[in-house]
Design brief:
two-stranded antiparallel ribbon, 64% helix, single chain
């Protein structure tokens, strides 16, 4: 299928699909017309890539994770995968803690401003 059809079937824009292809996350064959031709399995691959990106992984991490996804879409247990997921989870927890701290400060400032304006 050509890139426009893949974009339509997955809801992912053609720029992103080209980016995934250049990054080696998708495979395409160039036809005589120089258009990218994607196999039918590319739909499933794009869905998996987007799922991982939405979970907060960058493209390099997606490349590391994809080999651990079984044919039915389930993650296969492995130590490198567990470490990668734990690292990402730790980063998210740090960001959440920083956001919570910022929230407390802003709430205090807002409450103070509200008290002084009445």
């Amino acid at each position: 299928m050509i890139i426009g059809e893949l974009a339509q079937r997955t809801g992912v824009n053609t720029w992103s699909l080209r980016h995934y292809d250049r990054a080696g996350l998708l495979t395409s064959i160039r036809g005589p017309n120089r258009y990218r031709d994607f196999p039918d399995r590319a739909v499933r691959e794009v869905v998996r890539i987007r799922c991982l990106i939405n979970a907060g992984f960058n493209l390099e991490e997606v490349r590391e994770i994809l080999p651990f996804i079984g044919s039915e879409g389930q993650l296969q247990p492995s130590e490198p995968l567990r470490q990668l997921v734990d690292t990402r989870l730790g980063e998210i927890e740090e960001k959440l803690a920083a956001l919570e701290k910022t929230r407390r400060v802003l709430r205090t400032v807002s409450d103070d401003l509200r008290r002084r304006s009445t």
